[in-house]
Design goal:
By secondary structure, this protein is of the alpha+beta class. The chain has helices spanning about 1-5, 75-90, 95-110, 130-150, 155-185, 190-200, 215-235; strands spanning about 10, 25-30, 35-40, 50-55, 65-70, 115-120. Helix 2 runs antiparallel to helix 3 (about 95-110) and helix 4 packs antiparallel against helix 5. The two termini are about 30 Å apart. About 0% of the residues are buried.
Length: about 240
Amino acid sequence: MDLLDCHDLKQHVDAPTRKTHIIDWIVTHESTDLVYDILLNDYLRSDHSAVLFSLKMAKPSKQKKRVVRRNLKEVNTDTFRAEAARRLLDPPVSSDPVRHYDSTLSTLLDEHAPAKTKLIVDWPSAPSITAEVKYTKQLRRRAERKLRTSKLVVDRQIYNKQMEHAQTLIADAKQSHYSTKICETTSAKTLFSTVNDLLGCSSASPLPNNIDPSKLSQAFSDYFHNKIQTIRDKLDKIPHQNS
């Protein structure tokens, strides 16, 4: 507990979680109120009590974007090919052949596969996801759809195998990406910056912007001065042993 106090940290679990011992910890900074509604529950068949708590964290809003798609899978290729050949067979004499070709195929495509606008969630792509990982995830989703339709044991085995392969590939890709990023750092400063970026930590300044800089610097000075003085006072109270 003294180590937590030195770093201004707080342990929120204050009741035994296994027999008479507190072995489960929820540690936060003293200045934050991130954790609340802490509850110990022993409804599970375990020698440990479950520690339940709530976090004051807002769920990030989902960014959405509009995309235009065509259902090309439903196009009858034979009909499309025959219609295109018929319309392109006798182009107007006065028209530009290239422009006529482009407009004819565009019109034909709109008839067979009209463009539809759809609002989707714009999920950010992870930098560690490679083309191979994307293809493997596609195969996994394909195997999952087939399993839902057939319910066959062999399809379940194929899906489980594809899922394990995808998980292994994703883990290897993440490890390779993180290792490369860390190896490319040239100093301790860039290392900490890289690690914070990989962990998704915010780079925004934690300092308040509504306090005068001179008063803020004096507050920092007073804080560390008082902290050092407190440590010295505690050391002076420790009885010295004569050698």
